[in-house]
Amino acid sequence: MGMVLLLATGCEKKKGENQPENSVITAADRVEKGRYLIMTSGCNDCHTDGFMQDSGKPESNWLTGSALGWQGPWGTTYPPNLRLTVQTLSEQQWLDMLKTRKGMPPMPWPSVNAFNEEDARALYAYIRSLGPKGEHSPLALAPGVEPQTPYLSMMPQNLPLAVSAQ
Ligand code: HEC
């Protein structure tokens, strides 16, 4: 509604970097831009319970985390409640986390590490604007620990022998 988005991508790319520093998304303000990035980057698919089943509604529940575990060789992880996360971090701490953190699957850390600083600021502004809501998600479990919550198994199946023997 009244939001203006413009994507301009520069041709030059710094060697060895995934981050397109010259890409600029302009929006009416940081909050609108953050909302756009959350919506288009798929963050809600994991960080909002029932998002895929409910066709994305309601926005008031966005990013409140999930107690549905994702289990794989790394153990079981739960998408945290980002509405609570941003309450505990300064903007600078948020920027540092998005840029440098190498965490656990299935969180797409390489994608999030590639947000440029202005996009990361917009995400912070938008998530803060939603306000705190909900509970903390369960803590991650080590491999071999049986979850007490529902979970999805992401164990690789039927791998070629050469790969599974590694
Ligand atoms: C495929 C599922 C999935 C998607 C998609 C996803 N996340 Fe995550 N996210 C997770 C899981 C699981 C964790 C916990 C693992 C970890 O902390 O390394 C996590 C952790 C995080 C954390 C750390 C929060 C804290 O309190 O420690 C942040 C920040 C985050 N995600 C932001 C995002 C953003 C922004 C997007 C969209 C660009 C996104 N995530 C998309 C699953 C996902």
Automatic annotation (TrEMBL):
Organism: Halalkalibaculum roseum
UniProt xrefs under PROSITE patterns: CYTC (PS51007)
Keywords linked to the UniProt accession: Heme, Iron, Metal-binding
Keyword Iron in annotation: yes
Top-rank lineage group of the source organism: Bacteria
GO molecular function annotations of the record: electron transfer activity; heme binding; metal ion binding
InterPro entries to which the protein is assigned, alphabetical: Cyt_c-like_dom, Cyt_c-like_dom_sf
Protein name per its UniProtKB record: Cytochrome c
Lineage: Bacteria, Pseudomonadati, Balneolota, Balneolia, Balneolales
Keyword Ribosomal protein set for record: no
Limits of the Cytochrome c domain: 29-131
